[in-house]
Prior knowledge:
Strand order of the largest sheet: 4-3-2-1-5
Helix content: 10-25%
Largest sheet: 5 strands, antiparallel
Distance between the termini: 26 Å
Number of strands: 12
Mean pLDDT: 81
Number of helices: 5
Shape: elongated
Structural class: alpha+beta
Strand content: 25-35%
Order of helices and strands: EEEEHHEEEEEEEEHHH
Amino acid sequence: MPPTKRKRKAPPSKPRPRSLSRLDFRSPADGAWYGARVTVQRGALRVMYEEFLEELDEWYDPAALAAAASARGGGGAAAVAALRARFRVASPPLDDARCRDLRAGAPLCVSCPLDGNLLKFYDAVLESVSPAAHYRDAGGEERCGCRFMVRWTEGPRAGSREEVGVERVCCVQPTPVQDPVLDEFFDGVTKLLGDGGGGATASREIGGGVPTDAPPGFQRKFGARAE
């Protein structure tokens, strides 16, 4: 699970494989959204949180997802759909000059201050905008003074309302995720489900033991299988 406070990573000894695109990923640990990149490595999907330690990467084994179909009669397909739904196109911050483009009902991802000076992002819906004058900062950039009434749909404040400033708002994009790494992984899992293999022959790199040079997060999750 990711830590609750962002930390800058130490420079890795060698480049980490990753997809070209930055995605949003909803953590299973706290339900918050984080920036992440993905790769398929040693037979598993590796989700790499941006600005977090490498040890906190998430790993997903295609064999486990496929095996769920045999164990629960289609549960594997549901597990694949649930994992796919955790990814979406990155949500950009609301541009100060574009606040007038927002309409009631717009899906947003808003920063949520928590105890201990923690800041996490959860989904919300825009209910209304209280217009205010814009101004220019010292560098000549336009700044928005409007206030946005949002209703939280996720996180510890789900169901409640809050008025926030532009600096806390990101805009959820309707564009579907098109990432070659995710496509490769999910296509492989779908093939396993279609073949009825139940995961018995999947992820042989994992089942054959964990190499000593495997990433720390991989060791933590799959080390019990090592020979």
